[in-house]
Amino acid sequence: MAQNIYDTPAFFAGYSQLPRQTQGLAGAPEWPSLRAMLPVLAGKRVVDLGCGFGWASRWMREQGAASVLGLDLSQNMLARARHDTHDPAIEYRIADLESLTLPAAAFDLAYSALTFHYIEDLPRLIATLYQALIPGGQLVFSCEHPIYMAAAGAHWQHAENGSLSWPVSRYAVEGERRSDWFAKDVLKYHRTLASTLNSLIEAGFQIARIEEFAPSPEQIEAWPALAEELERPMMLLVSARR
Question: Which residues does the UniProt record annotate as the domain Methyltransferase type (predicted)?
Answer without folding.
Answer: 47-141
